[in-house]
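Dear colleagues,

I hope this message finds you well. In preparation for our joint manuscript, I am sending the 3-ketoacyl-(Acyl-carrier-protein) reductase (Caldanaerobacter subterraneus subsp. pacificus DSM 12653) sequence together with its predicted structure, so that both groups work from identical material. I would be grateful if you could confirm receipt.
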Amino acid sequence: MNFKDKVVIVTGGGQGIGRCIAQTFASKGAKVVIAEIDDEAGLENEEYIRKNGGEALFVHTDVALEEDVKNMVNKTIETYGKIDILINNAGIGSGGTIYTRPMEKWDRVINVNLKGAYMCAKYVAPPMRGKWGRGYYITTPPKNPFFITSPKTLISINPTGSRLSLSLFLSIP
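The corresponding C-alpha cells are as follows:
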C-alpha cells in the first residue's frame, strides 16, 4: 500500500509498537508525526526515519494534557497543512493490583489511555473533516487487538479494554 504524501500522526510513536508503526508508514511514503512524551525516544525515531529516506517530525506530546494535544495538531498543520490518519497508540499500565495500586496511578492510566485517545480524536477531527472531508483513526489499546474508526463509523474488533467505551462514545459526523 502506498501512503505517499499522506500525513500520519502516531501517538506513542517513539517506542515499541508506535515506533514500528511510524517507521512502516514512513517507508510507505507517509509524512509521519511522532507524538511522544519521551523526548529521547521521539527524537531518535525521527532521526532513524530521516536517515532511511523518510519524512518525520517529532512533537513532544503528553496525550493526557489538552495543551500538548492541541500543540501536536497545530504543529502538524503548520508543518504539513493537513492530517490524514491518526494512530492513537499511546498507552500505559499501572502495575500492582487493586489492593496496592494508588488512585493517582489509576487516574494517570485513565487520563492517558482513555481521555488522551478521546482528546486526540477530538482535536484531529476538525482539520480532517474541514479540509478533506474524511480521515482515519486507528486506536491500539495496550495489550489488546486494535479497532479502526472512520469519521462516520466506529467498528470495534476489541471486545475488551479501556478503549471500548471510547468507541461507543465517540461520534464524528
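For the figure legend, we might mention the following. The first helix runs from residue 16 to 27. Strands lie at 7-11, 31-36, 55-60, 85-88, 136-139, 147-149, 154-155.

With kind regards,
E.M.
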